Amino acid sequence: MFWRWRDNPQKVRRKIERLRERRRSADALELARHLCKLEADSPDAWNLLGDLAREASQPDLALAARFEAARLGRVGAEEWLALAAEADEGGFDIDGREARFQAADRFAMSGLLDRALELLDVVLEGDPSHRGAAQVRRIVARRLGRDREDREDSVSRIGATRDESGQHTFDEVSNEEWTQTVGGWDAPIEEAGRRDPSEPRIVTPDLYIREAQFWPSVLDRRPLVFVGSVESIDLELIALAEQRTLANDEVLLEQAERAELLYVVDDGALRISRERAGEQELGLVPSGFFCGGLGALVGLPSSVRLAAMGETQVRVVERGAMKRDAVYAQKLARALRALYLETVADMCPLFSHDALDEHTMRTFEPGEALAEAGKTSPLRVLITGYAAVLGPDERHLGYLCPADLAGELDPSPVTVRAATRVAALEILTEELDKLAPAAREEVTLRREAAQYAAEALARR
């Protein structure tokens, strides 16, 4: 009975304040750690932990907590710059560069391209191998060139040039490469070499997962993966998980295989990679974290490969677990739905939980058209399911997955048909001006990528 207050966040906060008043900083700090476990998604809880860690002269913990609060709170560029200055003062060079990268990304999304470019140059000067910064810099530099050309009313297109790394610019490769970033899991697309739409070939979901197709997709820039801390989910959800022991480099899941629902790392780590325009190392899932894929929930094969890094203990929540117990299945479905929607929102700024109330959600049965060639249709964001992209004579140009757009060009140059049952968010033309700046920028970039592909399709 005495310790039940520890499960109540409000009571924990009051206890922390009383401890701070009594100058029992060590006890207050330990309780703040506990609060962050109770409210893992609360920026306020992490900011409180950061303040207490700073008071306790633990700058590394203070900065880590502030970073988590900034990530959860989706703060703006100026807040990230303040974190960068704090990291510099503490001698945390890597954290300082990452904060500047986050600030640059937000400046770029807000249209402040000169400031973004300046920060990206600073990041790359300290770490030339920073792939995210190099990728965003190419995009920002290209956009600055285009914008200045527009202001001068030039009728000529940007010339075919190469940047310092030797990579083609966006305009040179046009439909052959679509490079755009939203942070986090994004990986650069190196010479993707898109499929010729006139090539007689049956495009299957397996091929779509492994190879860049002719029509651009969000899958070109990031996999359909979510990663989270075990502390953020109900432990009952992994009670029925199957335990497995993996040897070093042993493969748990191959790319393009059918994935299970959740993979929980108890000890060791899982390496995430994928084959798409070359081998891409995406990161690690450490002990105490889990990962999963959107594909397992919508019928697509896995977009990544999971392999053990050292001897690794994992628990696997299999798809069959949903059939074992009705109450358990409902809890698991709610948790997966939250992870799924959070991931889609991160992949596409047009979608948010608020958007479910502000816009119309439509359901399309297999074979039903989300967009038809030569016709106008509302802008649609795929939320669940996947759809086939068809060109003239029903030639298969690729697929669209969750977070992709249909109907972004008017009229549509292609037909998009639901391959499974698809739920899509409809955004009318008159509603576009009401979107947040980041969402409007996303529409512009997606339209550019689709326009390049449409022009290439017309030439064939």
List keywords for this structure.
460 residues, Serine Threonine Protein Phosphatase 5, Tetratricopeptide repeat, Jelly Rolls, 3 domains, five-stranded antiparallel beta sheet, 14 helices
Task: Report on this structure.
The N and C termini lie far apart (74 Å). The strands form 4 sheets. Strands 1-7-4-9-2 form a 5-stranded antiparallel beta sheet. Strands 3-8-5-6 form a 4-stranded antiparallel beta sheet, with no helix packed on it. 41% of the residues are buried. It has 3 domains: 141 residues, Tetratricopeptide repeat domain (Serine Threonine Protein Phosphatase 5, Tetratricopeptide repeat); 123 residues, Jelly Rolls (Sandwich), CATH 2.60.120; 105 residues, Jelly Rolls (Sandwich). The protein is 40% helix and 18% strand. By secondary structure, it is α+β, with helices and mostly antiparallel strands. The chain is globular and about 75 Å long. A hairpin with a 3-residue loop joins strand 5 and strand 6.
Concise description?
The chain is α+β, with helices and mostly antiparallel strands and 460 residues long.
Blueprint (SSEs and pairs):
Elements: H1 9-21, H2 25-38, H3 43-55, H4 59-73, H5 77-90, H6 93-109, H7 113-126, H8 131-151, H9 170-173, H10 205-210, E1 225-229, E2 242-246, E3 251-253, E4 262-267, E5 269-275, E6 279-286, E7 289-293, H11 295-298, E8 305-308, E9 312-317, H12 326-347, H13 355-358, E10 360-364, E11 369-371, E12 379-384, E13 387-390, E14 396-400, E15 405-406, E16 415-418, E17 422-427, H14 437-459
Antiparallel strand pairs: 1-7, 2-9, 3-8, 4-7, 4-9, 5-6, 5-8, 10-17, 11-16, 12-15, 12-17, 13-14, 13-16
Helix pairs in contact: 1-2, 2-3, 3-4, 4-5, 5-6, 6-7, 7-8
